[in-house]
């Protein structure tokens, strides 16, 4: 029998709940659905295709597994885990659902929401990456700490986070499942966003496999971009100075700043340059 994904996620949701919450048996009670607000830490944003099927089951049998919530104010709760059941219950017109109330920090709430979806293999790679990014940005966790909490290797977390380097519109393609994570990782080998978009268009237009995409990317990386033509005025200045000094010079000009390179071929020639510079009368900078 193949191992389930849960085996790779430690002890699951229970491992992330604070120990103090297990000192007493959890109390399950029925809570009005309208008293539960959606979680701001829910990583899943794409529509669940099987939600209507679950709603039909809930309409017939009710919600069999309690939702995990945390109390915001007396009588008002925030959903922590059970987003899919919560949405299906609303769709089914259920008024009351079973809940367990836990005392959780914002960080613990986000971790639980992530792990719940990862256990169900329910997160799109971009949703997963954005969830990890929130743990890093809002709570200061390292990749190593995130990996330990969600039961993955640090390399797996790092590779998922790299997807956020893709242009926003390509991230949306991944969310909409027009591209796979394999396609997206192949695109990351390209440094230029316009090249990523060019290959993305080819993937969608021609239905390229990941292997075909990797081959296309490899070919593009071998192409050397043409060097931009040098300003004729700079070329003229280079030539004028080269004639004056009797050696090769080069200007590298960027905006209002630049660099002048003077080549010399012997210590004697270098000393001659220095002597000429010392003889010049430079304007005062004071």
User: What strand line-up does the widest sheet have?
Assistant: 1-5-3-4-2
Number of domains: 3
Overall 3D form: elongated
Strand content: 5-15%
Q: Specify the number of helices.
A: 13
Protein name: ParB/RepB/Spo0J family partition protein
GO cellular component, one term: chromosome
GO molecular function, one term: DNA binding
Family: Belongs to the ParB family.
Describe this protein's structure:
This protein is an alpha/beta fold. It folds into 3 domains: 5-156, Conserved hypothetical protein from pyrococcus furiosus pfu- 392566-001, ParB domain, CATH 3.90.1530.30; 167-212, no CATH class; 232-276, no CATH class. The protein has 13 helices and 7 strands. The protein has helices spanning 13-16, 51-61, 83-92, 106-119, 125-139, 143-150, 154-161, 168-175, 181-187, 193-206, 210-222, 232-245, 267-279, and strands spanning 28-32, 36-37, 67-73, 76-81, 96-101, 249-254, 257-262. The chain has a 5-stranded mixed sheet. It has a two-stranded antiparallel ribbon with strand order 6-7. Strand 3 (67-73) and strand 4 (76-81) form a beta hairpin. The longest helix is centred in the middle third of the chain and has 15 residues, at 125-139. 24% of the residues are buried. This is ParB/RepB/Spo0J family partition protein. One of its GO terms (molecular function) is DNA binding. Pfam families: HTH_ParB, ParB_C, ParB_N.
